[in-house]
Design brief:
The protein has 21 helices and three strands. It is globular and about 85 Å long. The N and C termini lie far apart (about 80 Å). It has a domain of about 400 residues: Hydantoin permease, CATH 1.10.4160. With about 600 residues, it is mostly helical.
Length: about 600
């Protein structure tokens, strides 16, 4: 006999307590609680199919015309997805506020919010284009300035090989997230962030884990960029400006740029950031070929400092300043692993993983695309572009600087004038990237904490916009304090990469895809969601259903995903161990942090 879901049980009991007693029938999407556990996986997929079909019909009817200039310089959209009629209007509704000041997910709102208003609220935020998404991805991931350092820790062969493998896997993970997103996202039940995919594939526990790690990762990422920009500014000022002030300036700048709420507007900034990063690469490549490395700061974060400090220690040094008269060891390259200590190679690899960490924001990018199917082209184009930049720039840096390759390559050039040029350009692009991280980080907190627990108004409302403007400076201050408290900058990035970045790029995508495939293929004849009654009919539950879903329809993909998850967790564990080992060593020596006026780059 067919068993029914919880929705059917509610209907059988005479209706949901969120509705007036006289109400009978299925609960419409507009009256669901946020992340309602009573919404079945099959209800999500039902509405997702309707949304994808509508998108395809709209695309065939009005195909976009995109020229070269639109690709290079994507402009702000005229609006979101075309709204549907409300009471015979053009979509704006009879109520000027529409959904604006109404509490989403609150009880007894059947009369307050119509289905048209609800879906139009979801459509309104889908404003980004595919080309804007390309620049958002490259802005988020494009960080080639540490690849030379990673190559110095790994050697030519392992470095090129691992970066290639991890790049391909990052692209595959992006494809997995895209596939799941298309299967569960809809105008009725929009998937707004990474945690939403985890929730719909595996339920509440994984969602809470994902949201916590994503919030922590983005917070640390903002703080790391604030600190790196502070170091750049201190180097520009020749250390005459208090280091704490140098960092605080960028935190305050984040108060302003963080007020941008939509990713479409960030697309305009993002393409500028990509061109700035490319300009930094071209400039530093020219300087590398015509000047020696920045020997003094090599002790602070070069590959040789991690692999073997003797390879960067000057000999015949005299006087108080050991760099006044010295013989510097020659540049060294390694074909294989330069150290027998596995933690050294893993530490270098974590810096590379940090560079491929953009998958954490892929769902947020897709959630604001007018046509989510366009994400795949933008993602693969961005991945190929990023990988090419990594390989060319990383190998070039390692060739010219060898074991002196500094973790932030543009600070590793010796002429002060070119240091300044690189630092000025980098702080601008870095601030844009930090604002992007902050934007998504605040949305994760807003959607999953403030709206769900404290019933905050939607961000498209006036009250929501005011609340956003208040949260932004608080978020940036916390990020600054957190990063400033940890003196070892490179150890912090390594731990963050191992604990958070590896999960979002390599662990969670196959895990979420596994849950999605199991539930999708466990469906039998006569099962599914009935929109007329709101009933979800299932013939069985529990382990039997999981096993059937696992071995149905190309079960070997599920086995592959299980192995993928195990491998990613292994890399994460090794990375965390090696990075924490580096942090422990750093804390044994008195270190400078961002609460001091003395810059850690000032060796004089």
């Amino acid at each position: 006999m067919a068993a029914t879901g919880e929705i059917a049980a509610i209907a059988a009991d005479g209706g949901d307590p969120r509705f007036p007693p006289e109400y009978q029938g299925p609960i419409p999407p507009s009256n669901r609680l946020l992340h309602d556990p009573k919404v079945s996986f099959y209800e999500y997929t039902y509405y997702a199919k309707l949304t994808r079909q509508e998108e395809e019909d709209s695309f065939r009817t009005n195909p976009p015309t995109v020229g070269l200039m639109q690709v290079l310089f994507p402009t702000k959209s005229a609006g979101g997805v075309t709204p549907i009629n409300v009471n015979g209007s053009n979509g704006s509704g009879s109520d000027d506020k529409g959904i604006s000041e109404k509490k989403v997910g609150e009880p007894r709102q059947t009369i307050e919010i119509s289905e048209a208003e609800w879906t139009n609220a979801s459509r309104a935020v889908r404003t980004a284009s595919g080309s804007a998404c390309f620049y958002l991805i490259t802005t988020d991931i494009l960080g080639p300035f540490g690849v030379g350092f990673s190559m110095g820790c790994l050697g030519w062969g392992p470095g090129i090989g691992l970066f290639t493998v991890f790049g391909l896997l990052a692209g595959y993970s992006g494809w997995l997230l895209w596939n799941v997103f298309l299967g569960v996202d809809s105008y009725q039940f929009p998937a707004k962030n990474y945690g939403d995919l985890a929730f719909r594939a595996w339920g509440r526990p994984l969602r809470h884990i994902v949201n916590f790690l994503q919030g922590l990762q983005l917070l640390i990422s903002v703080g790391v960029i604030v600190i790196s920009n502070g170091q750049a500014l201190s180097q520009i000022s020749k250390f005459r400006l208090c280091y704490a002030v140098c960092c605080l300036i960028w935190a305050i700048a984040g108060f302003v740029i963080g007020q941008v709420r939509t990713l479409q507007k960030f697309g305009i900034l993002a393409n500028a950031a990509v061109f700035l990063n490319l300009l930094i690469m071209f400039i530093t490549m020219g300087v590398f070929a015509h000047s020696p490395p920045n020997y003094p700061i090599s002790v602070l974060g070069s590959a040789g400092g991690v692999v073997n400090p003797d390879t960067i220690t000057p000999s015949n040094a005299t006087g108080v300043n050991v760099y006044a008269n010295f013989t510097q060891p020659p540049i060294i390259h390694y074909n294989g692993m330069p150290s027998k200590d596995l933690t050294v190679g893993i530490f270098g690899l974590m810096q590379g993983v940090y560079a491929y960490a953009g998958a954490q924001l892929f769902v947020e990018f897709m959630a604001e695309l007018r046509r989510p199917r366009d994400f795949l082209k933008a993602m693969w184009g961005a991945q190929f572009f990023i990988y090419s930049c990594y390989m060319i720039y990383g190998c070039y840096t390692y060739f010219w600087q060898g074991q002196y390759s500094y973790q932030i390559s543009y600070q590793g050039v010796s002429p002060y004038s070119w240091q300044t040029v690189g630092n000025v350009l980098a702080v601008i692009s870095g601030l844009i990237a930090a604002a992007l991280y902050g934007n998504i980080g605040i949305k994760v907190i807003y959607n999953n904490l403030l709206m769900e627990w404290f019933h905050a108004p939607p961000l498209i409302t006036k009250r929501g916009k005011i609340l956003w403007s208040v949260i932004v400076p608080i978020y940036w201050i916390i990020a600054f304090i957190l990063a400033a408290s940890i003196p070892d900058f490179f150890g912090l990035t390594g731990v963050t990469a191992a604990v958070c970045f590896v999960q979002f790029t390599y662990t969670f995508p196959p895990l979420i895809a596994l849950g999605y495939r199991i539930q999708k293929h466990a469906l039998q004849e006569g099962e599914g969601f009935d929109p007329a009654t709101g009933v979800v009919t299932l013939h069985d539950h529990g382990i039997r259903r999981l096993i059937r879903g696992f071995f149905a329809d190309k079960w070997y993909y599920n086995v592959l995903h299980v192995l993928y998850v195990i491998g990613a967790l292994s890399v994460s564990g090794l990375g965390a161990y090696s990075s924490i080992t580096q942090l422990i060593s750093a804390f044994e020596i008195p270190q400078l942090n961002a609460f001091s006026c003395t810059s850690p780059l000032n060796l004089g």
